[in-house]
Protein 1
Amino acid sequence: MPWSVGGLRLGRDWVAAPDPATLRARWTALTGAEGPERERLFRPSRTRTPAAGAAALPGQRTAATARFSEAPGPFPDPVRVLRAPFDEQWLLPDQRLIDAARPELWRVLDAQQLFVTDTPEPLVTAHLPAGRLGRIRPLHRRPGGAEPNLAPGLLPLLGARHGGWVTPEDVLCWILAAGRPGPRGHEVPLAADPERWRAGLELGHRLLTVQLRGARGGEPPRLPAGRRPYVRAAVTAWPRELRHDPQTAELFLGDGVVSPVPAAAWEYEVQGARVLESWFAARNAHRDPAARGLEALGPAEWPQAWTSELTALVTTLALLADLAPERAAFAPGPSLTADALAAAGVLPPPHWARRPASVLDHHEEGPGGQFALL
């Protein structure tokens, strides 16, 4: 996947939140303030200040482009993003508020797109990654899945070797099954044996289905009957802690209880942190005594929807933990050599494949309502 883009750099945490209502409250507070108070709430950086203009993000028609200090415009419709591993939140898609929004990613964001993040184990999401998740690799270089972000010639080569049509999503499934961290980054051996290739695709497809969590119109993954987590006791007061009892397989969310929750889901880590604990901490961030300004605005009561999100997240982590031994034991078998890939013209990828494709088929509104000249 030659084309990669650095992660979004928000510059201010208040532009993202676990629920859209919080973003509306923050926007209302910011636009209702004036002068020095608005400046303080905005939290200016070297890149973004209330007096600086910015272009509209591609595909986001509710975003204004006038200087925020002069005309904030209407509340921009929040978009779903991946804020942290397996943590889907919401973002204000207004480039005036984001230090580095990566417009080239927004141009290829659509219902066919998938993004791969450069975490130690690749994460795949249908939402735009907007956290500290490393470099971002879109599966497609153009909207509509028109051009794969793969080394030119790779798909025909794999199709000829393995006796069938190979799609970009097939390669993505293979990456999930066979890729491993290595001294040069994430290394992906390409199977030379058709049987191992098909086995890897089958495993990778299951991994991809779990990671996508029902996105793109798919069915959310479910655990077998008897293992599905349910809310056994509702949350009646804001939970101060999240804890797990391995003996009873219960997850305590304050006075709420979710079970069964296997120990493997509770212990599931990415980047050295437990996913469930990180998810809970993100929803308590506005109640931290150190939170200030707009970041201190959030729900006064625990939203019931968050408990539902928690049970879905437990399901995802439990299923991934179930697949972990099979993935660890998977052997890709004999691999295509670098010489074979070079002889087929796959390696090295051409310089143009490492850059974004030209996808502008309409004018994009620049700062102050002017058309951007590109």
Protein 2
Amino acid sequence: MATAGTPGQGPLTGVRVVELAGIGPGPFAAMLLADLGADVVRVDRPGGASLGVDPAYDVTNRNKRSVLVDLKSDAGPARVLDLAGRADILIEGYRPGVAERLGVGPDACHARNPALVYGRMTGWGQQGPLADRAGHDIAYIAPTGVLGMIGDPDGPPAVPANLLGDYAGGSLYLVVGVLAALHHARATGTGQVVDAAIVDGTAHLSAMIHGMLAAGGWQDRRRANLLDGGCPYYGTYETADGGYMAVGALEQQFYEEFLRLLGLEELAPARKDWTRWGELREKVAARFKSRTRDEWTARFEGTDACVAPVLSLREAPHHPHLAARGTFTEHGGITQPAPAPRFSATPTTVRTGPARPGADTAAVARDWDIPALAHHDDLARDGD
């Protein structure tokens, strides 16, 4: 039977998750679990860290509930251990050793709940020379070789926001890890610690590239390869109005269609002739500059030339395909990406807006049968 929590369906309905509040990849991972139907309880601390924006707009806290616990108070660790004792998964993003010093590390939690999956989200990992050092996404992806792959060869590497490290190399690997460990725990009754490090996950993302590098099919420099902008039929081009079109016409048939629609059929032999790539790029660029982004979008619409307009964040929800699929949704006045992926039997949705710190303490205390939690919340508010 599903436990009480935020209403709605999803494949993780009935799974209980405790998230020790932080910023970045931990909250995003917990959001993904919440989107999938888990009852995620975020443990906020009085005056705790945030994104520096109104919590009402922190979409990474949607579909969650929040309780307020002061971990530095005498009773604070006990309240977190009470939650851990009733949870399937716990997620924390502190530096190594901090959770242990606070009294809520893996040993303490497993003493209360041997089947608990204890997920640890860090940049450098739990061990290694840099494990205790501070950092952010860009510093974590830099030594993996991945940051150095992105951008023009004559300039600095391009910064991919914090999507590549925090969320792709961090959050998604943590979610895969805790769900795999949950499967093991339910089969054996034994929990474990999942050490998700952004450096590990980001490096893992480059597995195919390392294979190509070893085979001699990838040059270890920027914009010199098939998939890094070095190829003139896999990249972006400016249009007459300052917009951009993205081109991914890799296969022969797509490449030929691409050239036909540009009116450059005579350049078909240049596809595999690297000595002509400069000529090809120049002529393709000149052709794209002759029309606006919307004109080129219309030109390529309904074709297999693998060309698409480059849209802004505000434009993206209005793209006809994304709008038809409901890739973005609106909840509480905030346009945001809808939960992904999609499930035929257990559909997911944005059930609730961002959890407000401490707003759900009484409900969680009741649903999880931890009466002392509500009392601790009163004390925490008094001391704030």
Protein 3
Amino acid sequence: MDLDVFVSAHRAEWDRLDALLRRQRRLTGAEADELVVLYQRTATHLSLIQSSAPDPQLTGRLTQLVARARSAVTGTRRASWRDATHFLTASFPAAMYRTRRWWVPTALLSTLVAVLIGWWISTHPEVQSAIAAPAELRELTRPGGQYETYYSSNPAASFAAQVWTNNAQAAALCLVLGAFLGLPVIWILLQNMLNLGVGIGLMSSAGRLDIFLGLVLPHGLLELTAVFVAAGTGLRLGWTLIDPGPRPRRTALAEEGRAALGMAIGLALVLFVSGVIEGFVTPSGLPTWTRVGIGITAELLFLLYVYVLGGRAARAGETGDVAAPDRSAALPTAA
């Protein structure tokens, strides 16, 4: 392509599109139709230049022009309660349902790792002594020790807020860092499972594993599930970079990235529920079976939410991506 000839042939169209976009008054019907036609042509011109004769200055100008024209053609739309309802009843659960083949194995494998770490620590006194001194271990595991008082060490509201913030950050990191081939996600998971395994091992060695599980299960089932969903989604995002499937890699990453961003918001809500349980139910004086029952109920409701509501939305074509009008315009592909 002779870039100078191409620019000379189409400069008038670009200038006309720019002039229409700068109009202060309302466009007439004919002018609006002309704007749409010029927008489509300019988008095609931009695609041709990018693929055949890339010029940074010209590409920058046309990219800005196409973006302004798209905004004028499609208009702006304010978020509404209908959008929030659709997100909670269709988009978010569908996204989790679609990624279940990633986060369910992640959950099973991670839980197995935590159990193995706990077994290794509980059956090897030398490993326990490497973790802390005997007096410190007794202080951790004794009745009324640090493992038990941790959940009541602060006022319930502030403790729930702190827990929610920490867990939401961990989930967001799993989702965001998944783009780095998923390697940081594996590290975050290992850190979480190591902490859980140490607690299992030390309390088991002290003969108080039932107390530990009675404190962890009420909130931990839902909390860890949310972390596993985030980790599995992050791993899926990393795999998309390696194998985008039939979609162009850029398109696949954009679609999965937008869905992951939506999941970060949804999982923050899930972790808020687990944080409330951890702040108000776990340290409460309720019987252990009641506290654990509340945790199991919350977990079952979450799974029903994913598999029933999410499965129905996914089968209806919902992917978890933003609505088509809110996506960036896809430029035509040059032949």
